[in-house]
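ARCHIVE CARD
SHELF: 3
SLOT: left
DATA:
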Amino acid sequence: MQQPSTPATVHAPRAGGATPSRVLGLNAYLMYATGKAARRRLTDTLTAHGLRLWHLTILAMLDEAGPLSKGDLAARLDMNQSDLTRTVTDLDTAGYVECARDPSDRRRIEVTLTPAGGRALARLDSDVSATEAGLLTPLTHEERDRFASLLRRVHAHLERERAGDGSAVTEPDGTGEDGGHDTHPGALRRVGAGSSR
């Protein structure tokens, strides 16, 4: 005669957001978890404009520093040269930057922000600011200023460490579930094209 099967043990579902207190005591975990959420939200905001974080970073660098060679851009952003080339190609195709060979050194390609690129960057300001405001909703304005100051200090420390080890960043917006996508020519839509805003 067949024995009745033993009922499987049923575990109650874990409550959403119930992170163990021991883990919540780790600043590195809190930075990872909040950074992951922040990156996802920022990625969503940029995607609505047909952009990714590297696109925004390069546009912002050119806006602040003026025309730069591809080599200078890669060095300043600690970015892999092939990734930078593909991302600049995206921006060039969209009309946000212009690339021209230096007459005095044909190997040097200078990248310049176009007026259209400047306007695209300006249009992003309000959406990116709104994304940040949503992330920092629990904080007062004074707390946000203090938080930003502390984050900049930690970031500067990590930048100095990274500069000493010679490593190069491949993607600031990550891969997989956090919204990273392959960068390839034609991947960039014009800001506002197909936007849900």
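SLOT: right
DATA:
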Amino acid sequence: MQHGIYMAVTADKNLELVLKVMPAIVVIMAVSALCGRLALMVKQPRVLGEMIAGVLLGPTFFGALFPHAQETVFSAEVKPILYVLSTIGLTLFMFLVGAGMDHGSTGGGREGRQAATLAISGMVPSLLLGIGAGYLLYDHLSRPDVSTLEFSFFVGGALSITAFPMLARILYERRLQNSRLGRMTLLGASVDDAAAWCFLAVLSAWHAKAGAMHALRTILLAAAFAAVMLFVVARVLRPLGNYVERTGNFGFDQMYLVGGIVLLAGYFTDYIGIYSVFGGFIAGLAMPRNPAFREALHGRMMDLVCVLLLPIFFAFSGLNTQLNGLAGWGMVLPFLLILVAGFSGKYFGCALAMKGVGFSWREAYAVGGLMNARGLMILIFINIGLAQGMITQDVFSLLVLVAVITTAAAMPLYRWALPERIEQRMEAEQKAPATTASGSEREDAGPADAAAASDARPSPATAGSS
């Protein structure tokens, strides 16, 4: 009798929770769809609209204008569910980003060295300038339990990241992915992002409260995990890629296997203290590199992740973003310092690197603008920092604003450097050799498929979309 009453009460509570979560998700999807469409209308990537939608749903706008409604839609009971869904979505998204990276090919020795130069020039200047800005702002913005070095390195790491999926999508939409500029930019951005996630993994381990030995243990476990995934699991999965390539069949059995690997990888890295997105990213790198496998994987997963789960992440980020408290010179000056440090490091560092390896100034500045977009990637980075207590709410809000501004500036800077007439000429130049390209060259068009081609159809933005 008592057991039956308990079950009935539990069922009622579960139903009540479902009736609270469903409207919140519908509101998130509706606002994200609207803002994404508006972004496309002003020739901005959809992901920018989705980022702004997250901020609008937070306390700065929705909460300020309709506090009761915002509290009802995003109640204390709903937020943990949104957090779980956003974490699963991010893990799957980073898995698709990793699966889309052509880390096994550099496009030739000379091109590979040029891409490495671009990656270093895109990351190191912004990292160093960000560290300097963090050091100057430590007393004003940091938590007292975070060291100066840790805070400074976190700010530098956040500013050094590039929105690889968004950059890839832009190049695909303009059919420049197989141009020399496109191939090198994609490879350089992918190296940038991979280095940034490894950097964050080390920072997370460093931040662990259990002392140096615990941090060392976390780093060693992360390195062992990456080695097992990239050298053991990747080899075991090769027959799966060959099977899909040979038969064209990517059914439920294959999805169960892939989905299980991703979630287990995310669980393990979360368990050792470096967040589940790192596990998803490494799992993606371990996937087969066959073009048919990548295309099937993307077709199965990317749209659902982008339409349903990523908007939830943007909304959850928005709920943690409070821009009202940033007014006044006390926060404006730190914001400007962080913005200038991040923008100049990426933009001029990448532009000078591109010019140095033989590109024109127009091409160099176009790449500098694209590489400067941070999109979804920086939001993932700073959400981890906020969740682990490495930064304060104010720093989180400042970096969200930097993410929105640098992402919004990417396309205008790109168009200013490469007007359509020059783009069309570049496309015509690459079409001539493309008509006689071998299958291996056509395979090069696939590296960013899982992260970028979704919006080329068009459909919901990746970001940083990532």
